[in-house]
Input
Amino acid sequence: MKLRFIYPAFNRHAEDHPELLDVVPCDEYFGPPSLGIASLAAVTPSSWDFDFRDDRFEDIGLDDDIDVVAISTFTPSAKRAMEIADAFRARGKQVVLGGVFPSNMPDVAAEHATVVVGEGDGIWPQVLVDAARGELLPRYEATELVDVNTLPLPRIDLYLDKECDAYRPSDYPVQQSRGCPMKCVACAIPNSLGRRLRPMPIEHIVGQVEQLAKRGKLASLTEDTGLFPGAPQRHTRTFVKALLDTGREAPVSYLGTSMPLILASDGALLDEMRASGIRMFYLVGGFDPITRQAFNRQHPRQRQRAVDAIRKANDHGIEPYTSFLLGNDDDDEGSFDEMLAVADEAGLKKAEFAIRTPYPGTSDWYEMVAQDRILHRDWSKYNDANVVFQPAQMSPERLLQGYLDTWRGFYETRQSLSKLDARERTIQF
Output
């Protein structure tokens, strides 16, 4: 039996707004596929002949001799994923859709393919058994959380072996844990991967980093749970010490976290992280009390905490690349300038600006649906670069213009970034 994994194409900031390319003096980040496909490939029986196609740069082979197509999708790529599913189905192929979007909008995805809801690792072998018989069920739902201690290393080689002039991701993800107990209004992870934080074994995380290091590639530590106080932070510290024990700087592009967690972290841990090779924090904004309140001039303490968090990261030698979220209900037309003022006061070198997006499966989504604030369901526009909801204190048009103006206002005084080396001048836009 022949199986093909497909990662569907989607747009980011500069693709939807190419004028940003004339404003931002940095290289455009090219992200790798998520680990969904690599993780499923790792538990696919050897009796299956499988390959991988990335729709962003190569032909997906609609008329190839394959039996089953597995598509991993999140919201920005969901429209394209369902188009691909329809095209393969029309050719008589069995098609499976999985990932964050199908897990949170299974009824929508089920109109186009068999749907896997939740973590796929545990039920993927059964999906393949049924597919081999030509008896796929309409839906498979993970009823139990996967034991992360039993997981093999993801087949990241599927991505690495694709590298060429047209396809060279800036880094590759390394998974440190699954699930999250928090209830951030804009995050769909708890609904997709459960509300219990399950840290990966240290040897598994180090193994992921090492398999990238052997190929000369950077690892991105994408989850923002690693600096949670208590057991998660102790786990991260053990991982950092394991990196230090290698005796060389780890090839890490960034670690995801947030301003409150930076402020709550022990300075000695930050020093150890920098010594291990972690040069950058990706500071996610817009979900925590600091970044939801710091830019409306009503909460001066939170504004100062934002400045302090950025400065603390810099003081420990880790660059605080910051993602500002525009369009929260407390934001008004003055918030755009206030974000720029905070960035300048804190000495921020690089940043990105994202439009609040109510992703399906988040409390933001359910609240806006109930309030009839969703403007449309063109999933290709749910990518942090378009306004898909009615803002509380301005028009959609004003929010979009403020987003573009903020990108422009931030980078017009930072044109010297173009002189940095490729790694230092690459940002997510």
